[in-house]
Structure formats: C-alpha cells, structure tokens
Design brief:
The chain has 197 residues and is mostly helical. The chain has helices at 9-17, 23-44, 70-85, 87-107, 113-136, 146-164, 169-195, and strands at residues 57-59, 65-67.
C-alpha cells in the first residue's frame, strides 16, 4: 500500500470495509472491537517502559486515569491519525476514544485486571474470528495487514455508526461503492486462483 494512501480515508476504509461487509460481522465488530481495544490497552499497560522516558501518571478519579506508557502513546497517536484521516468524525469520536483509553488506564491498577482483561480479550477475538469465517466467509483483515487492521478497526466501527446516523452520505456512498468493487475484485481473483489449481 503506497504511503500516500495511509492518509486517504476512502482508501483506508475501502481496505478495511472489504473485509467487513456482512451485517452480522459488522454488528459483531461494533461490540467487540471496542472491547478488544479496551482490553489490549489494559494488557499493554504492563509492557516495559524505558527508564529514560518520562514517568507520568494522572489519576482523574477512581475510574479514569492517564499513564504515559505504550498504551497511552497508542491512544494519543491513533487519535492524531484519525484527525488526519477525517477530522469531523475524529472530533465526534474523541470523547469515546478518551473514555476507552482513560478507563483502561485506571482499570489496569485493579488487582485482577490482567486476568479479567486476558479472558475478555480472548473471548472477543473468538467472536471476531467467528464473524469473519461464518458470516463474512473470509479471513480477517489483520491477516493481510496487521497494523492497518488494528489501527483502523475502532475508527471504522465509529464511522459505520455515524454513517447509519446520516453522517456524510456522499462519503458513505463512495466508500460503500469502493468496498463493493474491491470485494468483486477479490472474488474474481479467488475464482481465478481456484481455476489454476
């Protein structure tokens, strides 16, 4: 994927949408992508942080906090990327994004946080893969572009919800048409590869 397409919301969401077209799979993702994100932030909060990096912890209250660690950086840099892709949608997503990030940071200090997050994380991935293989009938995007899928999934879910609420119909229609064309191209390539076997 060319570097210029990394900043093109239509191209990025076409890539991701080509793997997420079936309504059941999209519904599964609307529930479990935020869950996977939240639990991943909890789990990655324990990754070693270099000593020469600044140490920072802000407890907002019992349920919300911010830590300058790998999870905190993921929250910051992804939000910046979302603003580059689609500023208005990113602005609307910011409260939810920060709630997920801040609540994960606070929850990571609970005594059984890692155990709870691990179980919920694994269960969520089982649902995700089930949606892909049984409803969608194809492998998930992360098998083709791991980082792209992990970064785009939360924003894709957010935009799908916004589109259902009437957000930017021209952008929605353009992305959905591109997804349809991409899926047709993928199916044609798969059929051609089966013929050559």
């Amino acid at each position: 994927m060319p570097a210029s397409s990394l900043l093109n919301v239509k191209q990025q969401l076409t890539f991701y949408g080509a793997y997420h077209d079936h309504p059941v799979n999209v519904a599964i993702h609307m529930v479990f992508v935020p869950t996977i994100l939240w639990t991943a932030l909890i789990l990655s909060s324990r990754l070693p942080w270099p000593e020469f990096f600044p140490q920072f912890h802000l407890a907002i209250n019992e349920y919300l906090a911010f830590d300058l660690n790998w999870s905190g950086l993921w929250v910051i840099f992804n939000l910046i990327y979302y603003y580059i892709l689609e500023p208005t949608a990113a602005f609307l997503y910011t409260p939810e994004w920060l709630l997920i990030g801040f609540s994960a940071a606070a929850f990571s200090y609970k005594p059984d946080a890692m155990k709870f997050a691990t179980i919920l994380h694994i269960a969520s991935w089982i649902f995700q893969f089930s949606g892909h293989f049984f409803a969608e009938g194809r492998s998930p995007a992360l098998l083709d572009n791991l980082l792209g899928a992990l970064v785009l999934a939360p924003f894709f879910v957010h935009l799908e919800i916004l589109f259902k609420l009437g957000y930017k119909p021209a952008l929605r229609d353009s992305i959905h048409a591109s997804v349809k064309a991409e899926r047709a191209s993928i199916k044609a390539a798969e059929a051609e590869s089966k013929k050559s076997l």
